[in-house]
C-alpha cells in the first residue's frame, strides 16, 4: 500500500516554483538532488522514487465481503502524479528531454540518476582529469573556485568523492605561479584548511596583490572594452532620455563597478585619474603634464616621483594623448582587455555603416563615449580588421587582441620589448611591433611588417623536413649564422612523429649508488638458468635474493622454475624471522615465475610491494644482474682452478656467494655485506681453497675398529646449515659435513701436475692416497675399461692463464716409462683402485705412501648366508637408456631444429629442405617476379619434424615450407577461408553400410594436398630463407598455387578436389558437403574427405582400383590399403565386422594428466553427482580446459563418456577444485576402460531406431533440463548426443517433448543422408520415449494448457508422425538406453546400457590374423 496518503494531500504547491530555484543540468546534479530530497521527504513522497511504494490493487473486499474499487488506489495515484510534477518542475530543457515517454516517478528518477549520476569508470576518470588539470587563467579566484567546486560536486554525486588533501592540492596548483607565496603558506598549514576556507584566503590574497601592485581603481593604465548591456548605464557627456534602453554599451572589465557609490555622477564632480582633484580629467591634468615633460628632459619637478610613477605617467599620457593633439596617427595600440577594435577617425575605413541608437563605449574610468560608425580596414594589405568601432572622441587606435585572434586565425606573441602577430597554421610572422612608453604599438608602416631577405625563407617545420629532420640545435645554429631564415619564431623543441619512429632509442640510465636505509626495505631477485649441465643433485637454476641495504645475497638452487614459489615462501619466512623486519619492496623482472596469482597473493598477504621492471629492460633490475655475473665468474674461476667437473657448479656458486658476502665492498665503505647486516666482522680463518684435498674425520662412519679414520676427499665449500665443511668422497660420491678436517691447500686432486704436500704438514694417522680422482660421466658407463695413456699431454690440462714448462719428447717418454699408471683423463674413471706397487712417485725427495689393503668385510653373527659371506661381489651397472634401443635413442635424441640457421648445419636437414623445394618447383607453385610496390608481401617459414617408425627408429626427416598466413591482409590476400570437413556421424554411417555390404574400404592420403589448390587472389611471398636466388635476390615469389599456411589454402584444395570429383561423376551430398557419392551403371562408391585424408568404399573392387589410378594421375596420393588409422580412430577388422576405438589417444590423455597409474573407477561420475559454479578456483584453468577438450574428441568412439564430459565442459570459463576432481574421476574410469570401442557388426535387417530421454530441471543453478538421444542403424550406434536444453521447461512433459523433437530432427537428417547414399531402409524410423504425456502430444494434435507455451518449431514432430515418416512408441525406463546420456547411473545399470550401445573390448587375437 502507499505510504504517502496520510500527509501528501496537505502539501502546499503554491510556493513550489519559488522553492525549486536550481534546475537540473549536467553540473548541478548534486545540488539539485540535495534540494529535491528534503521536499519529497517532507511531502512523504520519497517512497515513490526509491521504489518502496508500490501501487495497491485496483479492487478490495469490504466488510460485507463484496469486491469494490480500492479507495487507496486513487490516493496513491494522486501522490504519484504530485511526485512527477515536482520532478518535472525542477528540470531544465536538456534534462526534461530524457523523461519523455516515462510514466512513473521511479522511472524518471532512475533515468535522471543514470544520465547525470552514472558512476562509470570513463566518466569518473574524465571528471578527475578535468579537476586535476583545471587552472585559474585570467579568471578571478571566485570564478575559478565556483567551477572547481562544481566538478568536485559531480564526483561526489557519482559516489567517488575526492579527498580533502587532493582537493586542496589541485586547487592550489591551478592558481598559477602568481599565487606561489600563497601556495607555499597553504601547504604548511596544519591541520589543512577546508576548500571553502582555502578559496576565501585565496580571494583575500588576490585583492591584496592587486593593491600592492598598484592596480587601484583610480589609476587605469590601459583601455579595455567589453560588449555588455548594463542596467542602467552610466551617464555620458551628452545624456539622452532613451540611452538606458536602446544604447549598446562597451565597458571595462575591471572598472565598470567602481563608481556605483555615486548614483548620479556629474562629469565636473569626478576626480582626475592622476591627481585626484575633481573638475578635470587626466588628459588636461597639469601635474601629469609636468611629470611627463620632466621625464623627457631628464629631470623631475617632484623629487618624490619614483621610477614606477614616471613609467605610469608616460603610459597614461600616451593613451590619453596628453600633450599631443595629432589625430592623424595611424599606429595601433594593442589592448588585451578590449573586446572590439576602435578608431577615432572614419576616413581610413571601408564598408562603413552608421550605428543606429545611442551606442556607447565604457572606459576604465567609468565614463562612456558615443560610437558613431562601424567599418573595416587593412593593415598593410595583410591583416584585415573587421567591425572597427568609430569613437570620435578618442585619439589613439585600439587593437583588440581577442577580436584579432578570433576573426583572423592568428596568434599574438608578447616578448619584451617586441610582440609578433603570427599565422596560426603556417607559423608565419605577419607583423611585429614594439613596446613604447609601456604600451605595445603596431606601426602601420612598411617597417612594422616582415620584409623579404636574401636568405631562403621557410617555416621551422619546412626546414626540419628539408634538412632530413635535422635536430633543433642544427636549425638554430644555421639561423644564428644567417644561412637560413625562418618565417616564424623558433619554437621550443617538440616531438616529431617521424623522428620518433625512425630515431627512437633507449634513454640513458643514471648511475644508481643509492642504498636502502634499512635491511629488507628493498630486495632484488632474479633467476639464473637454465644451466647447460645439470648439477650433481639435478639442479638447473638458482634464485638470488639481494638486500639493497647490505648487498647481502641469499642463494637457492632450483631444479625447475616451478620451485621458485616454494623458495620464495621459505626466504620470506626466514629473513623476516631472523631480521625481525617485514620485507617492504620486492624488485624483479616480469617473468611468469614472478608474475602469477600465487606470488601476487603471497605479497598481498605479506604487505610487500612488488615492483616489476619494464619489459626488455633488465637494467632496471641491474643490481641482481650484476650479482649474477659476480657469482658466475667467481664460481667458474674456482672450478677451473681446481679442475673439477662442471656438474659441481652449484657447490661452486654457493661457495662463491658465501665468500662474496664476506668480502669488503667499496660501496659499503670498506665493510662486507655480512658485517653491515649482522653488525660484526666475519672470521676469515675458516676460508680454504675450493676443490683442494681435505681429510675429514670419519671415525663415526667406520665399519670396524681397523677401518681408516679418514679418507682423502675434495673440499666443496661451506655448509649453510652447519658450522662445518662439505667434503666429497670421489669414490662413493658421498658428501660429508664436518668441522674436524685437515686441509692440504696446495694439492688439488683433479690437477695432475700439482705436487703433493709433505707428510709432516698433515696431521693424520692413516689415509688412502688417491692423488688423481676423476668423475664418471653419463656418456660412459662406470664399468668401461680405462683408455691407454699415450702421452702426458692428453692426460693433463694446464691452465691457459699460467705458463707451462717446456718438456722434450724424450723426457715425456721417460716419464711414461717410470710412471706406467699415470692418472687417467677425467672422462675415464678408474675401474680398480691403484695398488701400492703401482703408486707413482711425484717427488724424488718423498717416498711414496703405501696404500693399505681394502678393509675386510665386517663379520656378521646372524646365520643367514649372504653373497658377502660367500665372497660374491657383483659390480653395479648404471642403466644406459641412450644406446639400449632405437626407441630410447629417438626419445633421448636432440629436438628438431627451430631455425633455418641450425638446420643448414646438418646435412640430413639440408637434404630434406632440397626435397621440399624440388616438389614445390615441380608443382610450379610460384614464379619469381620483381618486388611490386604498394602490395603486401607474405613471409614464409621452414618447419622441421623427425618422423619415427613404430619401434622408435628414424623414418625420415621432413622439412615443410609454410607461408606466414598471419601477415595476410583480409579482403586483399584472401576473402573466404571456410572449408567443410566430414561429420563423425557420417563416418560411422558409411562404415556401417560398408560392413553391412562387405565392401572394401581404402584409406588414401594426398601428398602435399594444399599445393594442388588454385588461388583466385594474387599473393606475393618472400623467397625461402637459405635458398634465395643469387641472381635475383630482390625478387619475390608470386604464388600460382596454394601453399601450406595460407588462410585460403584448405578452401582452395577442397574446391580443386570438388571440381575433379564432379568431373569424374561424383555428386556432392546435400546432407554433408564432405561426402561424395558415385552412382552409375550399378556401380556405387562413397568418398569421405577430411582435408587430405580420404576414405573410399564401394560395391565394385575394379571400379575402386580404376578411380584410385585416375586420382593418382591427377594428384600425388598414397594408397594406405584397408582402413587402419583415420583421424585418430583405430579401425580393427574382424570376421563379423569392424571395431572402432581410440586407445592410443586415450593413453596420451592419461599420460598428459599423469593418471596412467591411477586406480580405475567403474563409472565416469558418482551417483547423484551435481555440479555447481561455487567453490575454490582451480589453480590451472588452462590445464583443465586442455584435458576436457581432449576428452570431448574422445567421445567420437566413447558414447559412455558423453554425459560426464558434457557436465564438466559447462565450467570451462571458471573451473573449481571440485570440477577438476570430477575430471580425475572420468580419467580414472578411462584408465580402467581404455581399450573399449564401438563394434560395427553385420546386421540381418537395417532399420533406424532412436531413443530419447530428458532429465527435467537437472541443473541446480539454471533449472534447465538435460536431454540425450542415441540412434541405431541396423543395430549399430551411429549418432548420439548429451546436452543441456537452451530454455527452462515448465514440466517434465515439456522437457521430454523437446528432447523428442531434437531426436526427430537428427533422424530426419540421417534419413536424408541415407536417401542420398541409396541405402534408405524400407521400414519407417522409430522413436522410443519413456514419457506417456510427450508421446500423447506427438500422436494426438490436441491443444491444451501444457502445450500452449511450447514453441511452434518443436511441433514439426507432429507432422512427421501424421505423415507416416516417423513412428513414436513407449519404452519402459529400465530399457531406455538414452538414460546413460542424461544422468549419473549406478554401476549395474550403467554397464548394462553401455553394452546396449555396442561398446566393448576389442576382438581377441589368438595368433597372427586369426580373430575370435
Automatic annotation (TrEMBL):
GO biological process: DNA integration; proteolysis
Biased composition, class Low complexity, residue ranges: 834-846
Domain Integrase catalytic intervals: 515-681
Region (Disordered): 218-271, 775-866
Biased composition (Pro residues): 847-860
Positions with biased composition (Polar residues): 793-824
Superkingdom, taxonomy of origin: Eukaryota
InterPro entries from the UniProt entry: DNA/RNA_pol_sf, GAG-pre-integrase_dom, Integrase_cat-core, PolX-like_BBD, Retrotran_Ty1/copia-like, RNaseH-like_sf, RNaseH_sf, RVT_2
Any Pfam family matching the protein: Retrotran_gag_2
GO terms of molecular function: aspartic-type endopeptidase activity; nucleic acid binding; zinc ion binding
Annotated organism of origin: Deinandra increscens subsp. villosa
Protein name: Integrase catalytic domain-containing protein
Keyword annotations: Aspartyl protease, Hydrolase, Metal-binding, Protease
Amino acid at each position: 500500500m502507499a505510504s504517502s496518503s496520510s500527509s501528501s494531500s496537505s502539501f502546499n504547491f503554491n510556493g513550489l516554483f519559488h522553492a525549486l530555484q536550481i534546475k537540473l543540468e549536467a553540473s548541478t546534479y548534486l545540488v539539485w538532488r540535495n534540494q529535491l530530497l528534503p521536499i519529497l521527504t517532507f511531502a512523504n513522497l520519497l517512497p515513490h522514487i526509491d521504489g518502496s511504494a508500490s501501487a495497491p490493487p485496483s479492487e478490495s473486499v469490504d466488510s460485507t465481503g463484496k469486491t469494490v474499487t480500492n479507495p487507496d488506489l486513487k490516493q496513491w495515484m494522486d501522490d504519484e502524479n504530485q511526485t512527477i510534477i515536482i520532478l518535472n518542475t525542477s528540470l531544465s530543457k536538456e534534462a526534461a528531454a530524457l523523461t519523455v515517454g516515462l510514466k512513473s516517478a521511479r522511472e524518471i528518477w532512475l533515468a535522471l540518476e543514470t544520465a547525470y549520476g552514472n558512476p562509470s569508470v570513463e566518466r569518473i576518470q574524465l571528471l578527475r582529469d578535468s579537476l586535476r588539470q583545471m587552472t585559474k587563467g585570467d579568471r578571478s579566484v571566485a570564478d575559478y573556485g565556483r567551477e572547481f567546486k562544481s566538478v568536485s560536486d559531480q564526483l561526489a554525486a557519482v559516489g567517488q568523492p575526492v579527498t580533502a588533501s587532493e582537493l586542496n592540492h589541485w586547487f592550489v596548483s591551478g592558481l598559477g605561479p602568481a599565487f606561489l607565496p600563497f601556495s607555499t603558506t597553504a601547504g604548511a598549514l596544519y591541520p589543512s584548511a577546508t576548500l571553502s576556507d582555502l578559496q576565501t584566503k585565496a580571494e583575500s590574497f588576490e585583492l591584496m596583490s592587486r593593491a600592492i601592485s598598484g592596480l587601484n581603481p583610480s589609476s587605469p593604465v590601459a583601455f579595455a572594452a567589453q560588449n555588455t548591456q548594463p542596467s542602467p548605464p552610466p551617464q555620458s557627456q551628452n545624456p539622452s532620455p532613451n540611452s538606458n534602453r536602446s544604447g549598446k554599451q562597451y565597458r571595462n572589465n575591471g572598472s565598470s563597478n567602481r563608481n556605483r557609490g555615486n548614483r548620479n555622477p556629474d562629469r565636473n564632480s569626478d576626480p582626475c585619474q592622476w591627481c585626484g582633484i575633481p573638475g578635470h580629467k587626466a588628459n588636461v591634468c597639469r601635474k601629469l603634464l609636468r611629470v611627463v615633460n620632466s621625464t623627457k628632459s631628464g629631470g623631475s619637478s617632484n623629487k618624490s616621483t619614483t621610477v614606477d610613477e614616471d613609467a605610469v605617467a608616460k603610459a597614461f599620457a600616451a593613451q590619453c594623448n596628453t600633450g599631443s593633439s595629432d589625430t592623424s596617427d595611424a599606429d595601433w595600440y594593442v589592448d588585451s582587455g578590449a573586446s572590439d577594435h576602435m578608431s577615432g577617425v572614419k576616413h581610413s575605413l571601408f564598408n562603413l555603416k552608421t550605428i543606429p541608437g545611442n551606442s556607447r563605449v565604457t572606459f576604465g574610468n567609468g565614463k562612456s563615449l558615443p560610437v558613431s560608425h562601424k567599418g573595416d580596414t587593412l593593415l598593410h594589405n595583410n591583416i584585415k580588421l573587421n567591425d572597427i568601432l568609430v569613437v570620435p572622441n578618442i585619439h589613439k587606435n585600439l587593437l583588440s587582441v581577442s577580436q584579432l585572434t578570433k576573426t583572423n586565425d592568428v596568434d599574438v606573441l608578447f616578448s619584451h620589448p617586441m610582440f609578433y602577430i603570427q599565422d596560426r597554421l603556417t607559423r608565419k610572422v605577419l607583423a611585429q611591433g614594439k613596446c613604447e612608453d609601456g604600451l605595445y604599438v603596431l606601426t602601420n608602416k612598411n617597417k612594422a611588417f616582415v620584409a623579404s631577405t636574401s636568405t631562403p625563407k621557410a617555416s621551422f617545420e619546412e626546414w626540419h623536413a628539408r634538412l632530413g629532420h635535422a635536430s633543433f640545435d642544427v636549425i638554430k645554429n644555421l639561423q644564428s649564422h644567417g644561412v637560413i631564415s625562418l618565417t616564424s619564431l623558433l619554437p621550443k623543441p617538440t616531438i616529431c612523429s617521424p623522428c620518433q619512429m625512425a630515431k627512437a632509442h633507449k634513454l640513458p640510465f643514471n648511475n644508481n649508488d643509492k642504498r636502502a636505509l634499512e635491511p629488507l626495505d628493498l630486495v632484488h631477485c632474479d633467476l639464473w638458468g637454465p644451466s647447460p649441465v645439470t648439477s650433481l643433485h639435478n639442479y638447473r637454476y638458482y634464485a638470488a635474493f639481494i638486500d639493497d641495504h647490505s648487498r647481502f645475497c641469499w642463494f637457492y638452487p632450483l631444479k625447475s622454475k616451478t620451485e621458485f614459489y616454494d623458495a620464495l615462501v621459505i626466504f620470506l619466512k626466514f629473513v623476516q624471522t631472523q631480521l625481525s623486519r617485514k620485507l617492504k619492496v620486492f624488485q624483479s623482472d616480469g617473468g611468469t615465475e614472478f608474475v602469477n596469482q600465487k606470488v601476487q597473493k603471497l605479497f598481498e598477504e605479506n604487505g610487500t610491494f612488488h615492483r616489476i621492471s619494464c619489459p626488455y629492460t633488465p637494467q632496471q633490475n641491474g643490481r641482481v644482474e650484476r650479482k649474477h655475473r659476480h657469482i658466475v665468474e667467481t664460481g667458474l674461476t674456482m672450478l677451473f682452478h681446481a679442475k673439477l667437473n662442471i656438474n659441481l657448479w652449484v657447490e661452486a656458486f654457493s661457495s662463491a656467494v658465501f665468500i662474496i658476502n664476506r668480502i669488503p665492498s667499496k660501496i659499503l665503505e670498506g665493510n662486507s655485506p655480512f658485517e653491515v647486516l649482522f653488525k660484526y666482522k666475519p672470521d676469515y680463518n675458516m676460508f680454504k681453497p675450493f676443490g683442494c684435498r681435505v681429510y675429514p674425520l670419519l671415525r663415526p662412519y667406520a665399519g670396524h675398529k681397523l677401518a681408516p679414520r679418514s679418507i682423502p676427499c675434495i673440499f666443496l665449500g661451506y655448509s649453510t646449515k652447519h658450522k662445518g665443511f662439505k667434503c666429497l668422497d670421489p669414490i662413493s660420491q658421498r658428501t660429508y659435513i664436518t668441522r674436524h678436517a685437515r686441509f692440504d691447500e696446495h694439492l688439488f686432486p683433479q690437477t695432475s701436475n700439482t705436487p703433493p704436500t709433505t707428510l709432516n704438514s698433515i696431521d693424520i694417522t692413516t689415509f688412502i692416497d688417491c692423488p688423481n680422482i676423476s668423475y664418471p660421466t653419463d656418456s660412459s658407463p662406470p664399468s668401461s675399461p680405462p683408455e691407454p695413456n699415450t702421452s702426458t699431454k692428453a692426460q693433463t690440462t694446464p691452465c691457459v692463464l699460467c705458463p707451462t714448462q717446456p718438456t722434450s719428447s724424450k723426457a715425456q717418454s721417460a716419464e711414461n716409462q717410470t710412471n706406467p699408471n699415470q692418472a687417467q683423463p677425467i672422462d675415464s674413471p678408474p675401474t680398480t683402485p691403484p695398488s701400492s706397487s703401482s703408486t707413482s712417485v711425484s717427488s724424488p725427495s718423498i717416498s711414496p705412501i703405501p696404500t693399505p689393503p681394502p678393509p675386510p668385510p665386517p663379520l656378521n653373527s646372524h646365520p643367514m648366508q649372504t653373497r658377502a659371506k660367500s665372497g660374491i661381489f657383483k659390480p653395479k651397472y648404471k642403466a644406459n637408456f641412450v644406446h639400449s634401443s632405437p626407441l630410447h635413442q629417438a626419445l633421448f635424441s636432440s629436438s628438431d631444429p627451430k631455425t633455418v640457421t641450425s638446420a643448414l648445419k646438418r646435412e640430413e636437414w639440408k637434404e630434406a629442405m632440397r626435397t621440399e623445394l624440388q616438389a614445390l618447383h615441380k608443382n610450379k607453385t610460384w614464379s619469381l617476379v620483381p618486388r611490386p610496390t604498394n602490395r603486401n608481401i607474405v613471409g614464409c617459414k621452414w618447419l622441421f619434424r623427425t618422423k619415427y617408425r613404430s619401434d622408435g627408429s628414424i623414418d625420415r626427416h621432413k622439412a615443410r615450407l609454410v607461408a606466414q598466413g598471419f601477415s595476410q591482409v583480409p579482403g586483399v590476400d584472401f576473402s573466404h577461408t571456410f572449408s567443410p570437413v566430414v561429420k563423425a556421424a557420417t563416418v560411422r554411417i558409411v562404415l556401417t553400410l560398408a560392413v553391412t555390404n562387405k565392401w572394401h574400404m581404402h584409406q588414401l592420403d594426398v601428398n602435399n594436398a594444399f599445393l594442388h589448390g588454385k588461388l583466385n587472389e594474387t599473393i606475393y611471398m618472400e623467397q625461402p630463407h637459405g635458398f634465395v636466388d643469387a641472381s635475383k635476390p630482390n625478387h619475390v615469389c608470386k604464388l600460382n598455387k596454394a601453399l601450406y599456411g595460407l588462410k585460403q589454402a584448405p578452401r582452395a584444395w577442397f574446391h580443386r578436389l570438388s571440381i575433379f570429383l564432379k568431373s569424374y561423376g561424383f555428386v556432392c551430398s546435400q546432407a554433408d558437403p564432405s561426402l561424395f557419392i558415385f552412382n552409375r551403371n550399378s556401380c556405387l562408391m562413397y568418398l569421405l574427405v577430411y582435408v587430405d585424408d580420404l576414405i573410399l568404399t564401394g560395391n565394385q573392387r575394379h571400379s575402386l582400383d580404376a578411380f584410385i589410378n585416375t586420382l593418382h594421375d591427377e594428384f600425388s596420393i598414397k594408397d594406405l590399403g584397408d582402413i587402419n588409422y583415420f583421424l585418430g580412430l583405430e579401425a580393427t577388422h574382424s570376421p563379423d565386422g569392424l571395431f572402432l576405438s581410440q586407445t592410443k589417444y586415450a593413453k596420451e590423455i592419461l599420460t598428459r594428466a599423469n593418471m596412467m597409474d591411477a586406480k580405475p573407477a567403474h563409472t565416469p561420475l558418482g551417483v547423484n553427482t551435481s555440479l555447481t559454479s561455487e567453490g575454490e578456483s582451480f589453480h590451472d584453468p588452462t590445464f583443465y580446459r586442455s584435458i576436457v577438450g581432449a576428452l570431448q574428441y574422445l567421445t567420437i568412439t566413447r558414447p559412455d563418456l558423453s554425459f560426464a564430459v558434457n557436465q564438466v565442459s559447462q565450467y570451462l570459463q571458471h573451473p573449481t577444485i571440485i570440477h577438476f576432481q570430477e575430471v580425475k574421476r572420468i580419467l580414472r574410469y578411462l584408465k580402467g576402460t581404455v581399450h573399449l570401442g564401438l563394434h560395427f557388426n553385420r546386421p540381418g535387417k537395417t532399420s533406424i531406431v532412436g531413443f530419447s530421454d530428458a532429465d527435467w530441471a537437472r541443473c541446480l543453478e539454471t533449472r534447465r533440463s538435460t536431454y540425450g538421444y542415441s540412434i541405431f542403424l541396423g543395430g549399430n550406434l551411429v549418432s548420439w548426443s548429451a546436452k543441456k536444453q537452451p530454455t527452462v521447461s515448465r514440466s517434465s512433459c515439456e522437457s521430454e517433448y523437446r528432447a523428442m523433437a531434437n531426436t526427430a530432427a537428427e533422424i530426419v537428417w540421417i534419413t536424408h543422408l541415407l536417401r542420398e547414399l541409396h541405402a534408405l531402409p524400407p521400414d519407417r524410423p522409430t522413436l522410443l520415449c519413456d514419457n506417456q504425456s510427450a508421446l500423447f502430444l506427438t500422436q494426438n494434435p490436441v491443444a491444451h494448457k501444457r502445450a500452449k507455451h511450447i514453441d511452434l518449431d518443436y511441433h514439426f514432430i507432429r507432422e512427421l508422425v501424421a505423415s507416416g515418416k516417423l513412428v513414436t512408441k513407449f519404452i519402459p525406463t529400465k530399457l531406455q538406453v538414452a538414460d546413460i546420456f542424461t544422468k549419473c547411473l549406478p554401476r549395474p545399470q550403467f554397464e548394462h546400457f553401455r553394452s546396449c550401445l555396442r561398446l566393448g573390448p576389442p576382438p581377441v587375437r589368438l595368433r597372427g590374423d586369426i580373430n575370435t
